[in-house]
Each structure stands twice: as C-alpha cells, then as structure tokens.
Amino acid sequence: MRTIHALCFFFLTLISLDCRAEIKHNPALATFIAHMHQQYQFDPEKLALLFASASIKDSIIKAISTPAEGLPWYKYREIFLTDDRINDGIKFWRANNLTLASVAQQYGVPAEIIVAIIGVETRYGKHTGHYRVIDALSTLGFAYPPRSQFFQSELENFLLLCREENIDPLEPTGSYAGAMGIPQFIPSSYRHYAVDHDGDQHRDIWKNPADAIASVANYFFQHHWQPGAAVAYPVQADGNAYLSKLDKGLKPDLTIQSLKSVQITAPESLAENTEVKLLAFEQENQTALWVGLHNFYVITRYNHSPMYAMAVYQLSQAILDHRQKQL
Asked: Is the dihedral of CA 161, 166, 172, 174 positive or negative?
C-alpha cells in the first residue's frame, strides 16, 4: 500500500510539470497509471509522459451528453435512410464484393447487414472521427463521472491493444467516445473481435476494408447471429392494450401468442411460440409497432439502442433492394 501511495505522488508530481495536461491533478489518473504498472508492467514514467500529452476536451463532454438517440425515431431515421447513403452503400458493396461474399459465407452474416453497419457508423469509412482516441478516453474516463468506470476500462484496453499491435497511442483517431476505424470499434471490441482477414499480421480497421468487413461479421458471429433468420417485422395493434407489453429492455421476452392477447396482429409466418421484442417507434403523427427477433437483438449488441438497430436493418434492406434492381 505504501508503494502505491508513493507511485501516486510521483505521477501527480511529474504530470503537474506539464501545464497543458488538464488531467494533471486528477487522483484517478494516478491510480490508473499505478494499476497499469502493477497489472500489466507498463512503464510508469512513459505513461505519465503520455498522459501529459492528452487533453480534456469540452466538445467531447458536450457530444456524449447529446446523442442522436435522443431524437424521435422519424428524425433519427432521416439521418441514415437517405438516397446518398443507400447509393454509397451500393458502391461500397460493389468495390468490396468478393470480400463481402466470402465473409458472409464464412460467418453467416448477410452482406447487406455488414454494409449497413459500416454505412451507419462511418458513411463507409468516410467519417471515422477526428478526435485522438487518447483524448476521448481520457476525457470520458477522468472528466465524465457518469461513465468514468466504463471509459477507464476502455482506456486500459486501448493501451493494451496499442502495445499488442505496436501502435503509437497518440496516433489513432476516432469518435468522441473513442470508437475507432471503419467499423467504429471501441478498444475492447477491437481486442476481442477485430480480424486480420488478409493475413498481413495486422488487424487494420482504419484503412483496410477487408479487415473491417470481417471484423463486423465476426462481431455478429460471436454474438450468436442466426444465419438465414429474420430480423424484424412490422405489426398492427387494435386499441392500446399493447402498451402493457412495452418496456425498455432489448432482449426478446414475449411470444407471438402473448401479443395476440393484446390485439396485435403479426405475420402468419411467425409461429405462436416465436420469441420477440415489442418495439414502438415514434412517427410524426402515429406510432409504428415492430417485433424484433433474435437477430434484431444481436444488432443492439453493437449499439444498445433499438433505433440504431432499426436504422441498420432498414438501411440494409434499402441497399439490398436498390442493388438487386441494378443487377
């Protein structure tokens, strides 16, 4: 314990020498560096110098406090279901057709789902984020108390992946939340799911579409995507009894039979014992009801938002439909 206190004092003293480091007086940073030294044998002096180059950015705090998921569905949908994003998705598919075909066969995840994820996340690699990952994770780990524990964990994973992949921690850029590259993987997702598809001994999700495509597919495969199974269906309700079946969970917790008891009409192709999640999406003048199946839930593992998952699904179907018409 005495050693830890001595290390913490050393870190605070060293970091405070750099006036640019806005996290220089944060005791949590000193504790974090001590943890990385003791748990993973990182050099404490090098880590202290690294964080002396990191910056707390108000724009990151503002961005995470006002996510797009706070919009009503009909406005959120307008962001992603555009002609440009659909057409760009077709172009991305065409440019990476062989990779998408082989990856879809290997992992059982449809090409249109992979393309839509990348389309929603980064507009097919065009907008991968301009924040340094070290700044994003430091800001949220040490200056955003509501989620500091989560982002300190991601910062730990980031430093580990940089060591594993021989990457300078000051170089990678990404989103305000530290999501990286074409598929916007957070560091823990990178370490667990990123794939070296082309065999060059490097999992490059920043500049290599093949690695990015395979990494997305592996992410869904590892989260138990069911090949060939449906994702979601629109349903109709007679009256308001269905309201009792709505909640904030994401995992399928109802059956078609139970929904029929509250006057919901579902597609006849769905057996009464099919497990689903009842979902309500706000339109301008009404509510759109859907049931999400297991694969819909898998999409929410990428981003824990039903609106996100529905945007991905609808974009995937629009891209697939338009592409088939062009063949």
From this structure: negative
